[in-house]
Structure formats: structure tokens, C-alpha cells
Amino acid sequence: MQQAQDFFIENEKISTLIRGLDDAALSMPTKFKNWTIIEIIRHLHMWNVAAHYSLIDEAVFDSFFDDLSDFLSKGELREFEKIFVDGQNGQSMVAIWQDFYPRLFGAFTQIDPKKRVKWAGPSMSAKSSITARLMETWAHGQAIFDILGVLRPERDSTLRNITILGINSLGFNHKIRKLHAPEILPRLTLTAPSGEIWEFGEDENNSIKGSAVGFCQTITQCRNVADTDIIATGPIAQNWMAIAQCFAGRPHDPPKIGTRI
């Protein structure tokens, strides 16, 4: 699956970026909810392992998720993630993450993309599962690139996968907020890193224009839409960009203007 290849490449970018950082640098808070770099790495690792469980052993995944749910009734996610890796920190934690993501990549290259796998909500296809891991890796990676002041080299393939995930989340975005979902997708005109123009949707009265990077930053809530080059015209398009999230769970408001740039 191309999505698995993209997942591996995005992890490699982060790995190259943080290789050699000392513990003090890895403990640097990012602009993503004040999470440190190592907390982001720990978070990515645990959910990579969970995705692997869902591929190879549903019973193990169920046990993991039951433990997580029980813990979250009284504790905090980052605390559970630290316990999950026996308190590993610094470059030792980085090494654990670096050792595992190639294994997850390999597992997804061997699986039928249509195979149904368990997750926190409804089951999904293996293709959707690795696309979600790609999205989360790219989104959390943005916070690390930002805090280290490095411009990430972007790839058409990664951004197109995240763009389509975002488009497919339109109905979900409205459902979780108890809003009526648009019947027609706003007209999207996005410029890929290569300069290629991507067009989606048919509603000419509601349009979204700008870079694929800006659109993906908006739907993953790496940025407030006002901090991107995205121009949304029409009430349906503007409302969608104000509530967009392509990750599962309860409704999350986007970051406030100017807080993640």
C-alpha cells in the first residue's frame, strides 16, 4: 500500500530531525498543548503498537483498550503512555519508537488493504488504519518541526492521502457536533507541493482554495485556518473549516489564531 510507504517516509523525516537531540532538547515543550517532543514520540509509538495489535491479535488489542479505558476514567493519557513504555525517556524512548515503526510498516505491506481491523470506534479497513497512522504522524510531526524551526519537505502522496481523509470526514465533523451535514462537497482547489492542482467537489457556491499543506494543517488542527493560506468562501465552506477534524473522537475546537505558528 502506498499509504504504508508514506507512513514510513514521514517517520523517517522525524527520525532524522531528532537524531542526536539530548534529553533537554527532547523535553522541550511544543506548541501542541504544551506536549514535549518526547511525549509526542511516546504517543506515536503507543498508537503504532496498538495498530499492530489490531492487525495481528484482536484479543490483545481488546485487552489494551480495556486497560486504557479504565485508566482514563481516573488518569491522563500521557501518564498511561509513559507507563506503557515503562517510563522510557530521552533517546532510549526514541530508539524504541525507531525500532518499531519499520515493523508496523512491514506488517501493513503484507496485509490485504480491505481486511477489517478493530479500533477505538467502529472497525475499519487496514488501508484506513495505516492512513490514520500516516495522518497522525504527519500532524504530530508538524509540532516537532515547528518548535525546532525547521521547514518540513512535503510530498504530494502524503498530503493527498490526508486530504482525502479530511474530505471523507466532512459528514463526521458535522455529526459529532449535531449539525446537518452538507449534501454536496464544497469545491476544493488545492495546490500540491509539486505544483499540481487538485480539484474536488461540485458546490461552486462554497469553495476552498489554497495549498494542500494549508488544507491538511487545518483539518488535522495543526493550525487555525486563519493562520494558513486557505481561503474559504460561502457559509458551508467557512463553517467546515472552522470545525474540521480528520481524527476520531469527541469534537475538538481548532487552536486559537496565532498559537501554533
Automatic annotation (TrEMBL):
Q: What Pfam families would the database entry show?
A: MDMPI_N (PF11716)
Report the GO molecular function annotations: metal ion binding
Give the domain of life. Answer: Bacteria
The record ties this protein, via NCBIfam families, to: maleylpyruvate isomerase family mycothiol-dependent enzyme, TIGR03084 family metal-binding protein
- Name of protein: TIGR03084 family protein
Q: Which residues form the Mycothiol-dependent maleylpyruvate isomerase metal-binding domain?
A: 12-144
User: SUPFAM superfamilies recorded for this chain?
Assistant: DinB/YfiT-like putative metalloenzymes (SSF109854)
Q: Which InterPro entries does the record cross-reference, listed alphabetically?
A: CHP03084, DinB/YfiT-like, Maleyloyr_isom, MDMPI_metal-binding
